[in-house]
Write a structure and sequence with these properties.
11 strands; elongated; Trna Endonuclease, Chain: A, domain 1; alpha+beta
Length: 313
């Protein structure tokens, strides 16, 4: 079978599975074929269920289907193909370790086991009946897997009672502690402006509050992990959650200063760490005129701003 014939068959299967038009394309078809480890030379009956990540999917597509995607399309594969396959209950996410952080380079996918059995019968007399049975339970399967993913999310309850879910992992756990612990101690009665999440970068965002402070952003991805506004002192506190990268070093300090240059509130820059061990690892990188908070010593701060204790410059 030719490369294009196999891709066309995969697209036809995606259509039968009810995938949206935006996913009825070569990229998503290749994702499905990789989840089944089906190069053009193999029959559908030979499908298997390997554990694969985004980069391996792209490498596999190049090696088996001569489709060479640029490295910067990795997020497109993840957000425009794999997310939809996962949400539809057609593949599993981190089945070997459901608590693996979303931004982990070890994140993997696997074909849903019931679907695997159906697709092994593609091209046979049994396929239509098997597909019909699968479609009758697909929504309940998708709901089941969504609940399983939701169970490992980290809940964050805001002051107004609103709840958001942060992706599992140390980074998100630290974000929760910044909001729940750091805020009440060092910026009591402050308002939450923004909470980023490694799974959905817009976990919570009060755009109007930030706009009232003179800041209008065209790229939310440049925001720090947490932004608090201390209305009483008119301080905007910009906090990075640091577990594996990303303290407020000189470069990040300059980026944030530029990003918030129109702000009418004084800017406070904070690098937050889960423990002293990780803090010491990044100690040489931390910029002057910033603060450090370590969650296992929550009532203390380390000040890198010389002439002042805590306040904007």
């Amino acid at each position: 079978m030719t490369i294009q014939q196999k891709i066309d068959e995969a697209i036809q299967i995606l259509k039968l599975l009810g995938m949206p038009r935006a996913q009825l394309n070569e990229r998503t078809a290749l994702c499905l074929l990789c989840l089944l480890d089906l190069p053009p030379s193999k029959n559908w009956s030979d499908a298997t269920d390997p554990l694969v990540g985004i980069t391996p999917i792209m490498d596999w597509s190049r090696d088996n289907y001569e489709k060479n995607y640029a490295p910067n399309t990795r997020e497109t594969f993840r957000r425009q193909s794999m997310h939809q396959l996962m949400d539809a209950g057609l593949c599993l996410y981190n089945p070997d370790d459901p608590e693996r952080p979303v931004n982990s380079p070890k994140a993997i996918y696997q074909i849903e086991p019931n679907l695997l059995e159906v697709l092994r019968t593609y091209g046979t007399d049994k396929f239509d009946e098997n597909m019909g049975l699968f479609l009758s339970v697909r929504e309940s399967l998708a709901e089941k897997y969504a609940k399983a993913r939701d169970a490992v999310m980290i809940p964050l309850i805001l002051k107004d009672g609103h709840e958001i879910k942060l992706s599992p992992g140390l980074h998100s756990q630290l974000i929760k502690e910044i909001v729940d612990v750091f805020g009440p101690i060092f910026a009591p009665d402050s308002k939450l402006v923004y909470v980023g999440d490694t799974g959905d970068k817009h976990g919570y965002f009060d755009i109007d509050l930030l706009k009232n402070l003179g800041v209008v952003l065209d790229n939310h991805g440049k925001l720090p992990d947490v932004v608090l506004y201390d209305e009483k002192r008119n301080w905007l506190i910009l906090i990075e959650s640091v577990t594996s990268h990303g303290p407020v070093d000189s470069k990040r300090h300059s980026e944030l200063s530029t990003l918030f240059k129109g702000c009418t509130a004084g800017l406070i820059f904070v690098s937050a760490f889960p423990n002293k061990k990780i803090f010491l690892k990044y100690l040489p990188e931390i910029s002057w005129e910033t603060e450090v908070w370590v969650s296992d010593a929550p009532t203390h701060m380390v000040h890198f701003n010389g002439s002042r204790f805590l306040g904007p410059y």
